[in-house]
């Protein structure tokens, strides 16, 4: 039983990171109806930026994270601005455009930082906490706390601010939002900016947990994408639940199926989606004659 709970604790911290990635996917999708396939690559950029500012520039970890978030948010704005002429005209080209941006970002990462990775030491040097025979890394608690705060701030922004309400309106009905004077392009830009910032936050937080390398964003992007689908694509609560579920599932698979953990994780994910195609919080569409 102790091993069971220890595995859950280990999975939750990574699950929080997956949830942040899933939130970025879901936010852009619910606002624009677009899957941003460059999202995982932005995670990689955020991880490298945060590690560079922390290790090379010697900024405090929190400040390094904030600078990385600001830079990647700007990258998100650039991506949206380039894609804006295609909005509501050629959806397929927009999807291809996000893939192209992902390839460009991957190439830039290798050009700037090289193909080798780097290990990021934990910014919290405190020893693990012993609780009921369980060992909880202090940094895991930091990750959970930051992810929780980011999620609460996002929910408050969407539900309590005029700009957030405008984004919600665009998500529900693009044409009606335009008719009442909402600047759709600005709402889409903010969605891309926040999504990219969440990607950088996830990349920066996962650095001390995993090894930062050019393939990091691909792995996190796939699992974040799976988490968004599992929770119900476009659902904010679904992204959180899906991320935590994928994290715990991944942890159990790594502990019991070493070498095949990825395969087992996605097999279980596939079975769940076959049973519930719309995800946990997705709505089923009923066709009536």
TrEMBL record:
Compartment list: Cell membrane
Pfam families the UniProt entry points to: BPD_transp_2 (PF02653)
Keywords: Amino-acid transport, Cell membrane, Membrane, Transmembrane, Transmembrane helix, Transport
Membrane topology classification: Multi-pass membrane protein
TM regions (residue ranges): 6-27, 34-55, 61-79, 91-116, 136-158, 190-212, 224-248, 260-279
InterPro entries on file: ABC_transp_permease (IPR001851), BCAA_transport_permease (IPR052157)
Domain of life assignment: Bacteria
Family to which the UniProt record says this protein belongs: Belongs to the binding-protein-dependent transport system permease family. LivHM subfamily.
UniProt-recorded name of the protein: Branched-chain amino acid ABC transporter permease
């Amino acid at each position: 039983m102790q091993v069971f709970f220890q595995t859950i604790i280990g999975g939750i911290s990574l699950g929080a990171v997956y949830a942040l990635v899933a939130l970025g996917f879901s936010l852009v999708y619910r606002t624009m109806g677009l899957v941003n396939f460059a999202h995982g690559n932005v995670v990689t950029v955020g991880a490298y930026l945060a590690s560079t500012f922390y290790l090379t520039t010697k900024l405090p970890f929190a400040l390094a994270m904030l600078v990385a978030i600001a830079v990647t948010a700007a990258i998100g704005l650039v991506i949206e601005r380039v894609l804006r002429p295609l909005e509501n005209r050629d959806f397929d080209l927009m999807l291809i455009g996000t893939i192209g941006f992902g390839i460009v970002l991957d190439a830039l990462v290798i050009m700037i930082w090289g193909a080798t990775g780097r290990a990021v030491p934990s910014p919290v040097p405190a020893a693990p906490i012993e609780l009921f025979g369980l060992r909880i890394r202090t940094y895991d608690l930091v990750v959970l706390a930051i992810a929780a705060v980011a999620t609460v701030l996002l929910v408050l922004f969407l539900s309590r601010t005029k700009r957030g309400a405008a984004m919600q309106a665009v998500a529900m009905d693009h044409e009606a939002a335009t008719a009442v004077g909402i600047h759709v392009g600005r709402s889409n830009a903010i969605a891309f900016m926040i999504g990219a910032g969440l990607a950088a936050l996830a990349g920066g937080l996962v650095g001390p947990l995993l090894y930062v390398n050019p393939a990091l964003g691909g792995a996190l992007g796939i699992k974040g994408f799976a988490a968004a689908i599992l929770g119900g694509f476009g659902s904010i609560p679904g992204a959180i639940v899906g991320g935590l579920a994928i994290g715990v599932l991944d942890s159990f698979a790594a502990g019991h199926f070493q070498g095949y953990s990825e395969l087992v994780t996605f097999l279980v994910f596939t079975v769940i989606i076959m049973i519930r195609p719309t995800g946990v919080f997705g709505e089923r569409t009923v066709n009536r004659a």
